[in-house]
């Protein structure tokens, strides 16, 4: 049996059966054999189902499911596997190969994440539930228990032993994390060329393969000729109008990718610099993308009228 992208396939043999004896552990060491237990665990994680929930949906006893996932069940029936896979949102198909053609091994038959998940669980002593996504803890920020790691000013005074892996018990948080991971892996950045928009207006979009928009960057060209009254070749500038992205997709690198696409287009068009006005987190974001504060330019100033009786400021 093989699995790819949540699909489990039972392939009929295409060669004559051999009469040579087969070692008892040959199926376990054969690289062409799929680990059914790991495949079911991967499907359960994708569906966010515990063993008890999957057993209730499929009608298969939980003890049977546990034996299959642990590798203690010898030859479960096809109907049992079909019910389990269907309850987890998968699909079982049977196909035969032409005579003389052997099946090519699939990359990550139980899913690339399934292998890494199993290794993480082994490293953590199997303390993480099998239906939850295990996340490796490399620094305090990776562990929800290290609440102080989000504030650099406090992190110096706190420390604790970090676990090897962590996981989320809140299903809503798990769903949000999976959506964010899907966005992080799937979004693409391109320049949107709308024939109804002037060519001096630049727009870059970050979207998913299905066309869902998750971020955009807008800018426009500014010619120095309009300011000086005479042409000055090579001194065109770009004014950044804004960088927007979905609030649920913050800290996924979407903004940086948009700014990188802007920089690449500037290099292609021969535009020398880009200007932007920002404050607060926007200023920190542009600073992390390579923008710097330009001296001798417009500054934001504030004046508060003095309160009666209050001492006057002296500069």
UniProtKB/TrEMBL annotation:
CDD domains: HTH_XRE (cd00093), NAT_SF (cd04301). SUPFAM superfamilies: Acyl-CoA N-acyltransferases (Nat), lambda repressor-like DNA-binding domains. The keyword Transferase applies. Residues 1-33 are annotated as: Disordered. The keyword RNA-binding does not apply. Residues 165-306 form the N-acetyltransferase domain. Keywords: Transferase. This is Acetyltransferase (GNAT) family protein.
């Amino acid at each position: 049996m093989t699995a790819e992208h949540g699909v489990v396939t039972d392939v009929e043999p295409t060669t004559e059966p051999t009469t040579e004896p087969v070692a008892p552990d040959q199926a376990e060491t054969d690289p062409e054999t799929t680990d059914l237990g790991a495949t079911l665990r991967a499907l359960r994680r994708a569906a966010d189902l515990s063993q008890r929930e999957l057993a209730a949906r499929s009608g298969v006893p939980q003890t049977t499911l546990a034996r299959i996932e642990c590798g203690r069940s010898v030859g479960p029936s096809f109907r049992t596997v079909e019910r389990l896979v269907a309850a987890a949102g998968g699909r079982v198909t049977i196909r035969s190969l032409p005579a003389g053609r052997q099946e090519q091994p699939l990359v990550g038959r139980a899913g690339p994440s399934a292998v890494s998940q199993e290794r993480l669980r082994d490293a953590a002593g199997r303390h993480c539930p099998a239906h939850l996504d295990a996340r490796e803890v490399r620094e305090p920020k990776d562990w929800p228990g290290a609440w102080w790691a989000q504030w650099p000013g406090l992190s110096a005074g706190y420390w604790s032993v970090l676990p090897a892996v962590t996981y989320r018990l809140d299903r809503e948080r798990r769903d949000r994390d999976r959506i964010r991971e899907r966005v992080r892996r799937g979004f693409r950045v391109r320049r949107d060329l709308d024939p109804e928009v002037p060519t001096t207006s630049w727009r870059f979009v970050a979207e998913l393969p299905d066309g869902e928009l998750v971020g955009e960057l807008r800018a426009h060209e500014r010619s120095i000729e309009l300011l000086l009254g005479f042409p000055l070749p090579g001194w065109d500038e770009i004014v950044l109008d804004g960088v927007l992205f979905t609030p649920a997709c913050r800290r996924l690198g979407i903004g940086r990718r948009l700014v990188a696409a802007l920089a690449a287009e500037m290099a292609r068009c021969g535009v020398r610099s880009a200007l932007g006005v920002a404050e607060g987190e926007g200023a920190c974001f542009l600073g992390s993308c390579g923008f710097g504060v330009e001296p001798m330019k417009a500054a934001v100033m504030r004046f508060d009228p003095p309160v009666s009786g209050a001492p006057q400021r002296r500069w």
